Amino acid sequence: MPEHKEQKIIALLELNANDQALIRHSLKIAYIFKKELCLTFNAPKRSNHQAAHREKISDYARVVKQELPGMKVSTLLLSENTSRLPDVLAENHEGIIIVANSEKFRKHSGSVTESSIPWLFIHPESTIEDYNRIVQTLDLRKENSDNSLWCSYFGRFNQAQIVAVAANDSSKEGKTNVARNVKLSTKLYREFGIVHKIYKGGRSSLRNVFEALEMALVSDCNLFVMLGSSSITPLDYLIGLPEKKIIKQAGKLPVMVINPRRDNYILCD
Fold first, then answer.
1. The pLDDT of residue 4
2. Which one of 69, 100, 233, 264 has the largest count of C-beta atoms within 10 Å of its C-beta?
3. Is the pTM of the predicted complex or chain greater than 0.90?
4. Does residue 111 share a domain with residue 56?
5. The domain containing residue 97 runs over which residues?
6. What does the DSSP assignment read for 109-136?
7. What is the pLDDT of residues 114-152, one digit of tens each?
């Protein structure tokens, strides 16, 4: 029989004081989805401190096992290129969510745009950990199905309530596409009995994410879910992706970024 491999929540560590928050949030996500926690460090190539890195993450794992004996915990030490990292984690190590430091988004942006699994960005000082009040974007892109699917996982496994902010496009095609995404998302949430509300926003698909974030920040939202950039221009490489601005504005609010440029893996029940 083929070996059964369990999906893992990847805590992408830095081996510094920020790790405490990253591990805490990763533990919560692993608990919600009943997945194994994988404490991971991606070391610089030609690092001369591999043994020390391995010992550090092993120490972290030992503490977690002592405090939470029922939690499945593993460790992983890699030395991968940024663009290759998500595929290695997803394909070789069964990663299904990567939890990372929101203050280091620029460092991880090259991975996010190549990722087939979501990234959950956490501020090191964030204590927002309930993950049961979600605000999501809904624009004209067909990849919003992945966005809503991940929101539905939190609804199913954590009884999360979802607020979706739908774009208000002026073109006939834009209106049709947004309406399609609203219909599909509503059908999905009703199928699983997930409490949800759909708001018609006042901004187009290009500005929908900013309007949705504004709503999230003035509400009791504890998770913001968005699609990343569908196309990347030379200017983005120069000044940074729009996601960088969103994550900075979000402050201590956790932000999940789903990559529309790749087919995404699904969560196994």
1. 57
2. 100
3. yes
4. yes
5. 8-122
6. HHHHTT-SS-EEEE-TT-------EEEE
7. 999 999 999 999 999 999 999 999 999 999 999 999 999
Residue 195: alpha-carbon gap to chain centroid: 21
Q: Report in angstroms the alpha-carbon separations of 139 from 58, 136, 212.
A: 43, 10, 11
Strand segments (E) across the chain: 8-12, 36-42, 73-78, 95-101, 119-122, 133-138, 161-166, 196-200, 223-227, 255-258
116 with 166, same domain: the answer is no
**Cα–Cα distance, 112 to 4 (Å, whole number):** 27
Helix (H) or strand (E) holding 216: helix 208-217
Please tell me the total number of residues recorded for the chain in this structure. 269
Average pLDDT, 10 consecutive residues per value, the chain (269 residues)? 75 97 98 98 86 95 96 96 94 97 94 96 97 98 97 98 97 97 98 97 96 97 96 70 93 97 93
30 and 110 both lie in a single domain? yes
Is residue 21 located within the same domain as residue 111?
Answer: yes
pLDDT value for 147 = 97
In this structure, which long-range contacts are made by residues 59-66, counting pairs with CB atoms below 8 Å and at least 24 apart in sequence?
Answer: 60/13, 60/19, 60/23, 64/23, 64/27, 64/37, 64/39
pLDDT of 197 reads: 98
Count other Cβ atoms within 10 Å, centred on residue 226. Answer: 23
Q: Which two tokens stand for residue 218?
A: 């003035």
How confident is the model at residue 69, as a pLDDT?
A: 94
